Amino acid sequence: MAPPSAGPLIVGTGIAGLYVAIRGRELGLRPTLVTKSALEESNTRYAQGGIAAAIGPDDRPALHLKDTIRAGAGLVDRGAARILVEEAPRRIADLVRLGVPFDTVEGQIALGREAAHSRSRILHAGGDATGLQIEETLRARAIELGVEVHERTSLRRIVAEAGRSVRVLLVREGERGGTWIEAGPVVLATGGAGSLYRDSSNPSVATGEGVAVAFRAGALVTDMEFIQFHPTVFYREGAPRYLMTEAIRGEGALLRNGRGERFMPNYHPDAELAPRDVVTRAIRTEMERTRERCVYLDATGLPRDRLLARFPTISRFLAGYALDPSRDMIPVTPAAHFMIGGVSTDHEGRSSIRGLLACGEVAATGVHGANRLASNSLIEGLVFGERVVRQLLHPASGGPAAPSQRVMVREASGAGAEAGPEEVAEIRDVLWNEVGIVRSGPGLRRAIRQFEHLHRRIAPAGPEDPPTPIANAALAALLIARAALTREESRGAHYRSDFPRARPEWRRHLGLLRPSAPPSAARSRSRPARARKAVRPT
Ligand code: SIN
């Protein structure tokens, strides 16, 4: 492929990547966008729930902050969260300026309520098509502004020297070797890793590639044990695991087990509107108890007109399976949904490698702590995307503080063997079975052994060989399992049956590093909560 023109290289075309490209272009930069898929394919497109911002007359950023901190189970970075809630209204104004058609009532933006939000502060567009509307608006604007786009092109490697990224390897689909280019600033906006799990609400592009590439280059990666599971995706053998937004429960739908019994009041005082991890585990327990493969979302108490108006996309999807939510129970099951951890960044989107920035789901800003508040992810991509643009315009040195506990993960050198659908299925099954909703030490050790074994077979043989996407997926899976084994407690989205409670000594972030990471990544800028525990490299 022809090397992209000089200017920042932005990898990923969800809300964060598109927004950085648009704002960069508006402010005089010449960004290049690359995506391993088509321009329109990203997790953003499938976001139904909405985007949170304290813009209602009875709301304030301080209340949004309180809810975000409460959801995060003791691990929210308060500074980052304050930035999120205070800058959110301005970023919404940007979306309005760019033409996102938010739903309105009597001329005012309509605000919905979701679980764990103390106020109505969720904006929607097209009912349950918020992500799609945002993505289409931003994509059209990026094209209008003449942003250079390379589709079907993936970032496979970053080479850093003396703590600065110097070269990147871009590989076009179907090409073997790829093209090395001198790196100017690189912005990772590659999204999450949900589709590494057998059951996932994410599109197939969400494979954790950005995390694997950054980790291999020596970047600090944090909080990978916190994979958020969504309680309700559509369940039918052979059908896609299509998201059934939490907003349906927000409107009053109930959850029933295979025997038709409502069960959530037995698990939490907030019943169907309990925190996502509680609802997810309750569903899993009910499925085991009743030996059923799903539970049911019962929206039959809601008026048909209301369901059609508020959830038009979901209603159309269900009609394809001859289901009418005002009459029929919707079969649902939990699925992997959101990667809370990722490439560790400071408040300006700077990673531990100079010249490498990250925003959106791939970045670990600390705003979500151990459990993300619903609808805080799209807004995170915008708020920290804007800050990344500021860094692109006026670069300054900085980077994330080192976490108080670090684990060195040695990447076994591989034989570079070909991998295909069997290896992908292996990763997805092992993650689902052993690193899923409920984890335990023995299962996590089994998973690590399997990922290491797979890795030795398929990882690239030489330091400059292009890893295949499946080798990157195996590395991302290994990082999730390694972090989950190290965190010997249950907190937020991470649940261990052998350590079922939160432990005060674990109120800390967990960082993962390669043994030869640049010194900037390993340097501790904050006093550790206690002496660092040595953890044997894998
Ligand atoms: C949902 O609509 O239930 C998902 C929204 C989110 O994950 O923020």
What key attributes describe this structure?
single chain, 538 residues, alpha/beta, Flavocytochrome C3, Chain A, domain 1, five-stranded parallel beta sheet, 32% helix, globular, binds succinic acid
What is the CATH superfamily label of the domain at 234-333?
Succinate dehydrogenase/fumarate reductase flavoprotein, catalytic domain
Return the average pLDDT rounded to an integer.
Answer: 91
Output the CATH class name of the domain at 234-333.
Alpha Beta
Helical stretch count? 14
Which regions have little confidence, pLDDT < 50, spanning 5+ residues?
A: 522-538
Number of strands: 22
Q: Any idea of the CATH topology of the domain at 234-333?
A: Flavocytochrome C3, Chain A, domain 1
- Structural class given helices, strands, pairing? alpha/beta
Portion in helices = 25-40%
**Strand line-up of the largest beta sheet:** 8-2-1-12-19
What proportion of the residues form beta strands (DSSP E)?
15-25%
Task: Itemize the secondary structure elements and their pairings.
Blueprint: E1 9-11, H1 15-26, E2 32-34, E3 51-52, H2 61-71, H3 78-98, E4 104-105, E5 108-109, E6 111-112, E7 122-123, H4 130-144, E8 148-150, E9 153-161, E10 164-172, E11 179-182, E12 186-188, H5 209-217, E13 221-222, E14 227-234, H6 246-250, E15 254-256, H7 276-290, E16 295-298, H8 304-310, H9 312-319, E17 330-339, E18 342-344, E19 356-358, E20 363-364, H10 377-393, E21 405-408, H11 421-434, H12 441-458, H13 469-486, E22 510-513, H14 519-522
Parallel strand pairs: 1-2, 1-12, 2-8, 12-19, 18-20, 21-22
Antiparallel strand pairs: 3-7, 4-5, 6-7, 9-10, 10-11, 13-18, 13-22, 14-17, 15-16, 16-17
Bound molecules: succinic acid.
